[in-house]
Every structure is written in structure tokens, then in C-alpha cells.
Design goal:
Layout lengths: L28 E2 L8 E2 H44 L3 H27 L4 H27 L2 E3 L12 E8 L7 E6 L2 E3 L2 E4 L1 E7 L8 H8 L1
């Protein structure tokens, strides 16, 4: 009787053969967070992809939420501007009324100052002027409550953002300073409604050189 003896593998206990194909990827187990559960490698990779996709969706959601908040703030600002400046058209139409008040007062003051006779007439004229001034102030106070503000020009330097130069006065003095105002300008809150029409001082121009002097310069 012949006996066949199976040699034990040096690294194998109890004479058992080592497990075959231990490195087969299909059999690799990925470490799990829960020590009691082992997840196959393919399933583990699929879960990782799902987590990455969820992270991408989360980032998109955060961006969309931020855009929504910015849009809300922008709409709120636009609504406030619309309410604040909704009276612009009617106020612009009322401006000529203020202009006529100013012209009437200036004209009446000039007539009263130049008249030397008819003392009673002068006194009545002063009374009329006082009444017109009260009406003008009342109207302007109402408009002021709605955001209208007159642009100051007396003693100011010319500023193209608020003033419109309709003439220049050549005289000695500070250059680019407003000499007088021909038509008042107004602001509506912080927006220009109408620029002030003014005359601006410029330095006197130098006298033109004589023809002989010009000839010397050329030569």
C-alpha cells in the first residue's frame, strides 16, 4: 500500500493550504467606520462618489442661497430708490413756480427801492412783498419735506457737478468763483434735480502783444 504524504506549507498551520488569490480586487474589503461591518470595495467607491455628488449639490445650494440674499437686498434698495425719487417729476414741474416767486420778489424790491413818491404805494408794495415771501417760504418748506434742497452758490467756487456756467465775468479776484446766480439749482435728496445757472469770474486776459513784438517772437 502506498502512502502519499502532503507536505505542510511552511507558513500554513495544521497542514492547510494557503487561501488562493487573496489579492483578487473583487474580494478586497474596505475598512468601514462601523467595526462590525465590512463594505465591498466597489460599494465603498460608489458611496464615496455619492458623498462627493452631495457635496457638490451642497455647494450649489449655498451659492444659490447667497445669490438669493443679494437679489433680495438689491430689490430692497431699488424699491427704496423708487419710493424716494417717485416725486421727481412733479417737483420738477413746480420749480418754475419757485422761479416766478423769486422774480416777483426781486422786481417788487427793486421798484420799492427806486420809488421816491407815493409813500402809501410803497408801503402797500412792501406788504405785498412780505405776503409773497411768506407764500414762497411755505411752498418751499413743503417741498423740503419731500427731499428738495436748494444749492448754495454765494461765495462758492464753480463746480460742474452742481453749477452751469452761462456766462463769464472778466475781473480781478478769485478765479472760478461764482459772481452771481441767474437761476437757482436744486437737489432731490442726494441726486441733482437741476443745476444752478451762474456767472463765473475769470482772470482778465492779457492785452495782445503789438505787431512788432509778435514779429520779434517769431524771428
Amino acid at each position: 500500500m502506498s502512502h502519499h504524504f502532503k507536505k505542510n506549507h511552511p507558513h500554513d498551520k495544521d497542514g492547510q493550504e494557503p487561501a488562493a488569490e487573496k489579492n483578487d480586487p473583487a474580494e478586497v474589503k474596505a475598512p468601514a467606520k462601523n467595526g462590525n461591518i465590512e463594505i465591498p470595495a466597489q460599494e465603498y467607491e460608489d458611496l464615496k462618489k455619492k458623498v462627493q455628488e452631495l457635496e457638490g449639490v451642497r455647494e450649489k445650494f449655498l451659492l444659490a442661497a447667497a445669490d438669493f440674499e443679494n437679489a433680495k437686498k438689491r430689490n430692497a434698495r431699488e424699491k427704496d430708490d423708487f419710493i424716494k425719487f417717485s416725486q421727481e417729476r412733479i417737483l420738477r414741474e413746480i420749480l418754475p413756480v419757485l422761479d416766478n416767486f423769486e422774480r416777483a420778489i426781486n422786481h417788487a424790491n427793486a421798484a420799492s427801492a427806486n420809488s421816491s413818491a407815493y409813500e402809501d404805494l410803497r408801503q402797500n408794495l412792501k406788504t405785498v412783498i412780505a405776503g409773497v415771501e411768506r407764500v414762497q417760504k411755505q411752498l418751499f418748506d413743503i417741498l423740503k419735506m419731500h427731499g428738495l434742497k436748494k444749492i448754495e452758490t454765494a461765495g462758492q467756487n464753480f463746480d460742474p457737478h452742481f453749477h452751469e456756467a452761462v456766462a463769464h465775468v472778466s475781473e480781478e479776484g478769485k478765479e472760478d468763483q461764482i459772481v452771481d446766480e441767474l437761476e437757482s439749482g436744486y437737489m432731490l435728496h442726494d441726486r441733482l434735480l437741476r443745476a444752478s445757472k451762474v456767472r463765473v469770474r475769470v482772470s482778465p486776459q492779457e492785452k495782445p502783444a503789438a505787431s512788432g513784438e509778435k514779429q520779434d517772437e517769431i524771428t
